[in-house]
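**Backbone description:**
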Amino acid sequence: MQYDQVHSFLIQKLEDSLPSYLTYHDAGHTRNVIEAAGHLAIAENITGEDLVLLKTAALFHDSGYMQIYKGHEEVSCNLARKCLPEYGYTPVQIETICRLIMATRWPAKPTDLLEKILCDADMYYIGTEHYTFYAEKLYLELKKNGSVKTKVEWLLQQVEFLSAHKFHTQTAVNEREAVKIKELHQLQMQLESAVSVSNKMKPGELIQDILLMMIGVVFAGYALKGFLVPNRFFDGGITGISLLVHELYGFNLAIVIFLLNLPFVVVSYFSVSHRFALWTFFSVILLGICLTLLPDVAITKDKLLISIFGGVFLGIGIGLIMRAGAALDGIEVLALYTLKRTSFTITEIILGINVLIFAVAALKFGVETALYSILTYFSATRCIDYVVEGIQAFTGVTIISAKSELIKYKLVNELGRGITIYKGQRGFLPGKFEISADCDIIFTVISRLELRKLKNLVYNEDPKAFVFANTIKEASGGIISRRHHH
């Protein structure tokens, strides 16, 4: 085996042929791996032919980067098979070298000592004072090929990598493990700091949230003072309880709403987030000021108009405040707090509270008033949904069809939607359980307005297609936000 000759040949070829964006996987990295492999081999009593095979594998292990980035190990083996016979390597020796090269694939699972040595040599910069230097070179390389985009993302990848990484030889463990653990702790602290900085609200976002909060408070205050309060109508939640207390005992509505919401602001501080609690506190104070300044002037005496538009304005107000990251009614916080201590769902808890509110309203102010108040609550709830989730209410659609190829083409080129494909099987019908076939399961996201158009498109191609849809609370990215004409 003419190792020195093949070393000179390949190192020169790596220096001439590796892409310039490979700031980490360059010829210098190959030299470092060969040196680390030799050091570990001596410490682990590897000599003779095994040592030469190990160093040759280290020499070739990243040569595939000259042609391809992902899956370079296979290409490295092909280059070794093509090149090494000229330098006196036998077919058996070459296959041993290829086995060692393939062992360096992440996550590494070496099976013998030579594989363990090469895997440790490939990562031997970990646990040294040079870690930051080589990590920065790798970051620049990954950023160039699009594998990582931000420093925060890179810190997260490093933490995940070092957490999963382990040295395989006892020599590497003794020499590198302790420092590696310190490096991991430092990266974790850097990541926490970077995430904290990235989560800070930008001035533009802060101004936007304050404006949404102020507009929402005005809408809610107008609904209460212009529709509900002058006509003794009620709503659900803490707002409904406040209206009941105001009507029954004559207490100032602004003060009642503030005092009843205050305990839930405190609870949200510990159970939700500090920011949410602070924003909710400001929202409640602003609503109190708004209710104090606005006069009690009934916009209309028509009970149907009062119940519908009172709910609409109240729902718009609460929805805008929710979009700002706060709440104007502590009932959701109460439901979350109670959920942890009972077997009831949030929906059941809120429903139970509202049933009590409307029951009291029926007893004190008549069934008709209670029924109109329920309509107010329904109108407010629907408006909150529209404001928070958007009028389009994106819908996820799953399609299973024997004509999936044609349907995929139609969805992308006629409906203009992106699709995701899951591999599955269709069949397994009653009486024909043993009959099945592979199929593509199509998933796409559309607006609610497009659902009928999509179904028509699918059923025109396959009347037996299985289509089901479900509402998506929030969707972003991709091409879902493009305008479509109907």
The longest helix spans residues 170-198. The radius of gyration is 33 Å.
